[in-house]
Write a structure and sequence with these properties.
alpha/beta, Collagenase (Catalytic Domain), 2 domains, eight-stranded mixed sheet, two-stranded antiparallel ribbon, 7 helices, disordered N terminus
Length: 342
């Protein structure tokens, strides 16, 4: 294994998250219906407690011991282990953590709508670009076709019972499945239009997948957004822990609990956003008069794309993703890689 030339710099501002969260991105829906929460299973609760309640912020996060454990778990080459074990902490170089990805195209026999491989490859490249600063990459290990009369909305039926049954039937162990599913044929009913883009559970142990509407497979935001949830991120406008104050005084306890994402009032206030300069102006916090300035083009926000602005994760969000990868999902890592070429 060749050493990489780029050093990892992780500025950990981990503070907390929802123990389990089903994230649903949608257009035209009532804001209260955009996200549905579920109770955590006991294992997930313990993992989250360990992950956040006992973590101290640190700079230049290099977890050499955890990397060694990953190599040992996957029977890494003795030369690689010897090389890393012999490095001093100041000389330690991070390697990319490579996760296997199984792509499953779900086809309704009554609506045989297949996806082209170039679109799928483009979507995975977009995903890998978005996670490169978190030192994570996905490697496609298989592409399957599953014939099932389901849509992304029908999977949510009966409080997601259909989704859980589908996951039990089709998930793989230690390999995340990316399910690409059709949406409803009629997206505009009862004088309103709505479209679920995708959903994913945060650190849940009952399922091991991300579900995406086929239409959004190569969208520049949807796939990174849902995989952000898979690795522990909440929406920037999350309220399950309470509203984050504009001054950030409760950033470790409220909102998304990542302190370098400013308080976000939510996309319902999108009328205050100028999408040319990607900035919210004029919306003030009740009681203080302080203006909200959320990150409009953050992957975990719900705002429309800004003109000529890229989406991004903050350093704090990248730390959450990386920590979840090495401490919560190390059983899925298949190899260590070099800097990817995009």
């Amino acid at each position: 294994m060749n050493k990489i030339k780029k050093r990892a710099r992780f500025y950990c501002r981990l503070s907390g998250m929802a123990l389990l969260f089903v994230a649903v991105a949608a257009y035209g829906q009532d804001p209260e219906a955009l996200s549905e929460k579920r109770m955590p299973d006991p294992k997930t609760e313990l993992l989250a407690d360990s992950m956040y309640h006992h973590l101290m912020p640190q700079q230049h996060f290099h977890d050499k011991e955890q990397l060694i454990k990953i190599l040992q778990q996957h029977e890494g080459r003795p030369t690689d282990l010897k090389h890393i074990e012999g490095l001093g902490q100041s000389d330690f170089e991070m390697h990319y953590l490579v996760f296997p990805l199984r792509v499953a195209i779900v086809v309704d026999p009554a609506r045989p709508d297949q996806l082209s491989l170039p679109r799928i490859r483009k979507g995975i490249e977009i995903l890998n670009r978005s996670l490169s600063d978190a030192w994570i990459q996905f490697k496609t290990v298989r592409i399957d076709t599953i014939y099932a009369p389901v849509t992304i909305n029908s999977l949510k039926d009966r409080n997601y019972e259909v989704y859980y049954a589908f996951s039990i039937a089709h998930d793989l162990r230690d390999t995340i499945s990316l399910y690409l599913v059709d949406n409803e044929e009629n997206l505009c009913e009862d004088y309103r239009c709505a479209r679920t883009q995708g959903f994913s559970n945060i650190l849940e142990t009952y399922t091991n997948n991300v579900v995406i509407d086929k239409f959004f497979v190569d969208d520049f935001k949807v796939m990174p957004h849902e995989f952000g949830h898979y690795f522990g991120l909440l929406h920037t406008a999350e309220t399950v822990f309470g509203l984050e104050r504009v001054d950030g005084g409760n950033c470790t306890e409220a909102g998304d609990r990542v302190c370098d994402t400013p308080a976000d009032p939510g996309e319902v206030y999108g009328v205050y956003v100028n999408y040319s300069n990607c900035e919210m102006k004029g919306l003030k916090e009740a009681g203080t008069g302080l203006e909200y300035h959320p990150m409009i083009n953050n992957y975990m926000s719900y705002y429309a794309p800004c003109y000529m602005r890229k989406f991004y994760f903050t350093p704090g969000q990248l730390d959450v993703i990386f920590y979840a990868a090495v401490h919560i999902r190390p059983n899925q890592i298949i190899e260590l890689g070099e800097v990817p070429e995009f």
